[in-house]
Amino acid sequence: MVKQKIVVIGNGMVGHHFLEQLANRPERELFDVLVFCAEPRPAYDRVHLSEYFGGRTADDLAMGKVEQYRGWGYDLRLNDAAVSIDRENKIVTSASGASEAYDHLVLATGSYPFVPPIPGHEHEKCFVYRTLEDLDKIQAAAKDGKIGVVVGGGLLGLEAANALKQLGLEAHVVEFAPGLMSVQLDEGGSKLLREKIQELGVTVHTSTATELIEEVDGGRLRMQFKGDKELVTDLIVFSAGIRPEDNLARSAGIELGERGGIVVDNHCRTSDKNIFAIGECALFDNRIFGLVAPGYSMARTTVSLLCGEAAEFNGADMSTKLKLLGVDVGSIGDAHGRSEGSAAITFVDEQTGVYKRMITDREGKKLRGAVLVGDTGDYDTLLQYHLNDMDLPEHPEQLILPALDGAAPALGASALPDTATICSCHNVSKGDIVGAVQGGCCSLGDVKNATKASTGCGGCSALLKNVVDTELAALGVEVNNDLCPHFPYTRQEIFHMVQVEEIKTFDELLHKHGSGKGCEICKPTAASIFASLWNEHIHKKPLVGLQDTNDTFMANMQKNGTYSVVPRIAGGEITPDKLIVLGQVAKKYDLYTKITGGQRIDLFGARLEELPEIWRELTDAGFETGHAYGKSLRTVKSCVGSTWCRFGVQDSVGMALAVENRYKGLRSPHKIKMAVSGCTRECAEAQSKDIGVIATENGWNLYVCGNGGMRPRHADLFATDLDDVTLIKYIDRVLMFYVRTADKLQRTSVWLENLEGGLDYLREVVIEDKLGICDELERQMTNVVGTYQCEWKTAINDPEMLKRFRQFVNTDEKDEKIVFVEERQQRRPATQDEIVQIAEPA
Amino acid sequence: MREVAITRTEWLQVCKRSDLVANSGVCALVGSRQIALFFLPEQEPQLYAIDNWDPIAKAGVIGRGLIAEIDGAMTVASPLYKQHYRLTDGQCLEEAEITLATFPIAFDGDDVLIQVD
C-alpha cells in the first residue's frame, strides 16, 4: 500500500493539536507525516506564555516533545521554515532547500503581532509579545530599566503589562480606543476593569495615540502622543492585535480575505482542495479566531476529514474567562448587545468593584451574551445557558444578583443537556463525562484521565467536579472519606474531636470515637494530631506505640535497616567548627556523607544502637534534631541574599533562620519544605516549596502550596511586598489552617487544590479573617513554637527512652546481617549478590 | 488463655519485663537467631515472639514495626515495605506463601521466657 503524504506547515499549538489528534487514530498508519517548523523548538503553550516570567521554563511549557513526535513516527524539521508551495506539482520547498511532495497540505502558520507603523517602532528597545525569544529579550531589557509601556489594551496587552510588573517595572498601558479589552467588554465593564487595574499600580492611558518614538539622552525612549502629551520609558512592548500569517499562501495564489487571512470553508479547505488551513491563519466566515479552542476545533475537523469521516467547522464561541492582573474578567457571546432586539440587565456594585451585565432577547427568555468584571463566579452557569440555548429562569436577574439568602441559583449539573460542552479545550461534553462514569470511572482523576476534560486550561474544573459528583451520586456511589476501618471520620473531624475534648491518648480517642485496636493509618495520624495540638515528646509512654518507625527512632530507616542522621542546619548556614564536628562524627562511625537537596548534611549507615552516641556528640556540639524523619518542617533553604550577593535585596539567610527556627518541630499532615530567596533570581528555588518567600525591594513576596512531590507543582503567589511581621503572621495562619484541615498525608498542594474556593478562599481566611479564626490559629502556632524541644536532646538524657535504641535487649552484640561495601571512598549497603559473594568466596 | 507448662529446662530467659516496650516491639538475639518480641498489655496473649528477619526487605527490622489490627487480627507492619505479618502465626497477609517463624513466649514473674527449638 502506498501511503499518502501529509505535510504540515507550522508547529504552534494548533498544528500540534492536529498532529496529536491524528496520532491517536488507527488511520494514522495510512499517512506519512512531515512537519516544517520555523522555530528552533516544537510547539509550546503560548496561552500560558507569561508564566515563563513566573518561573516556568521552556520545557514546562513544551507541548510537543521531539521524542514524542519521533514515537508517533513524524518527520519533524525544526528551524526550517517552508518558503514556497508549488501547487501544480504539489511540492513544498523549505529554507534549507528541501523539496517535499504532498498529497495533503495543512497550513497552520498562525499569526504574527501587528506593530503599528509609528515612526521609531523599529528601535531595539521595542518588542512584541509572541515567542519565548521575545520574552527573553524583554527580560534582558527590563534588567536595567524602571519603566515599561505596553501599546495595546486588549487581552494580551494587559497580560504583557502584568509581565512587565512581574519583572519589577513600573507598567503603563497605552490604548488607542476609549476602553480596555474593547473586543470582549462593554463600556461599563471596561471602565471598571480600568479602575481595578489602576488600583494595582498599572497606569492606563486610553484614547491615546502614539505619534512618535525617539531615543532621548541616556538611551531611554520618549513616546510622543497626540495632543502634546509624552512619556519617557525604558522599553515598549507592542500588543496591538494579531495578523494572520498568510504570506506563503499569498505567494502560492491561494485565496485570501480582503484584509488578509486564508479563506476556508466549513471543511477548513482553502481555495485549493488539497490544502487546508487551521488556526489563526485561517479566515472563516470573514472572521479570524484568535483563541486556541476554535483552532483546536478546526484541527479536529481536518483530522476527521482526512480520515474519511464527515465533520464540519461552523465557527466557534468566543466566550472567555480569565484573570488579568488578578482581576476576574468574563465575556460571553454578544457582550456588547449589538444583535437586534436585545435587552440588558446590569448589576453594578461600586463598593466591591463588581460589574455584571446580561444580554437577553427582548422576552428575557434566552441569553445572548454577558460581561462580568470583578467576580466571574456566575460565568460557568451563564455560559451553559448561552451555549445550549436554554430557557432562562422566570427571573433571569437572579443569575447575576447577589443572593440574599446566601445561596446562588447556580445551574445544577443535572439541568444541563448531554450535549453541553464542559471542557472546551478538549471538546468534552457532559455526555462524554457521563459515559466515562458509567463506564467505570469512580473519581474525578479517573474521569480526567479517560476524557482529558479539565487537563487544558483547567477553567472547567469546578463544573467538571460538579458533573462527576452528580453522576456518581446518581449511580449510588458513596464517596468514602473515612480515615480507616477503625475511625468513621476524616482526619479533619478527628482533629476537631481531639481539640475540643482535649484528648491526649490514642486509647481515649479509640474508646470514645473509634473501634477495634488501631492500625498503621490511624495511629500515626493520631500521633501527628496530638503533636500539632499538645506537642509532647513522641517517646512519652502512651505515644510511643503510635509512631511510624522513623519517628520512633528519630532517624530515617534505610534499606538495610540502618539509619540516616540529619541534624538541623537552619537556613543552610553552618560554622566551620560545626562542619568539622559533622566530619569527625561521620568519620568515627564510618557514615556515608551526602549534602541533601535542602542544604543539609545527611549521614547514612548508623546502626540502631549507635544513634544515641552519635546524637550525644552532635548535641554537645550544638546541633539539634533536623526532624528529617517526621511529617513536619524539614528544611528552609536559602541563598546568601543581600549579605553577600550583589543582586540580593533582602537578608534571605536571616529570614530563613527566623522561619526555620520558628516552625522547627511543627508536626503536620505531610512533610513541609520552605525556602527564602534574596531576590527574584530565585537561587533558593522558593517557588518549588510548600512555603516560598522571595525578597522584593519593598519586602517579601509569599508563595504557598508548591512542591507536590511526584506531581510537582509551583507555589502560588499569595501576597506581595510584606514586612517581616506580616510575613510570619501569614505563614503562621496558612500553616496552622493546613495542619487543622488537611487530610492524612495530604500535601499542601493537594490540600489547596481540594480547598473549595481555592487560593482566593485561602486569602479570605488568612488575610481578611473571613472565618474569624486567625487569632486562634496564631495562638495555636505560638503554643507549638513555645513548647519546642529537641527530641534527641531529651531522649539522650532519659535512660528509659534510650533502652529502646538497643539492637538486642539481651546482648551488646551487633547485627551481623548488616553488610557494607566500599564505593567512591565511602561505604554503602551491600547488594544481595554482593552479600552472597562475601559469604561464599569463589 | 493459652496453657503452657513452664519449666526452666525447656524455656530460655531472654530479658526482663522492663526491657519490653508496651504496645511496641524490641529484638533479642537467641543463639544466632534474631527474634522480635512484642508486648501488648491489653491483649490476650500479651506477648508475641516472631522472626525479626523481613524476607521481603532482606533486613532484620520486624521488631521495629508498628502494631496494626487488620480485620480483627493483630499484625505487625514491616517498617520497610509495610507488609503485615500476623503476630499469632507469622502469616504475611499480602503474600500467601510467606510466613515468619513464631515462638512460644511467656512471663515468669519479671522474666520473659522463650522457647526456641
UniProtKB/TrEMBL annotation, chain A:
Residues 422-468 form the BFD-like [2Fe-2S]-binding domain. Residues 558-619 form the Nitrite/Sulfite reductase ferredoxin-like domain. Pathway: Nitrogen metabolism; nitrate reduction (assimilation). Residues 630-770 form the Nitrite/sulphite reductase 4Fe-4S domain. CDD domains: NirB_Fer2_BFD-like_2. Pfam families: Fer2_BFD, NIR_SIR, NIR_SIR_ferr, Pyr_redox_2, Rubredoxin_C. Residues 319-383 form the NADH-rubredoxin oxidoreductase C-terminal domain. InterPro entries: BFD-like_2Fe2S-bd_dom, BFD-like_2Fe2S-bd_dom_sf, FAD/NAD-bd_sf, FAD/NAD-binding_dom, FAD/NAD-linked_Rdtase_dimer_sf, NasD-like, NiRdtase/SiRdtase_haem-b_fer, Nit/Sulf_reduc_fer-like_dom_sf. Keywords: 2Fe-2S, 4Fe-4S, FAD, Flavoprotein, Heme, Iron, Iron-sulfur, Metal-binding, Nitrate assimilation, Oxidoreductase. Its cofactor is siroheme; FAD; [2Fe-2S] cluster; [4Fe-4S] cluster. Residues 5-286 form the FAD/NAD(P)-binding domain. Belongs to the nitrite and sulfite reductase 4Fe-4S domain family. This is Nitrite reductase large subunit NirB. The gene is nirB.
TrEMBL record, chain B:
It comes from the Bacteria. Keywords: 2Fe-2S, Iron, Iron-sulfur, Metal-binding, Nitrate assimilation, Oxidoreductase. It holds the Pfam family Rieske_2. Residues 12-114 form the Rieske domain. This is Nitrite reductase small subunit NirD.
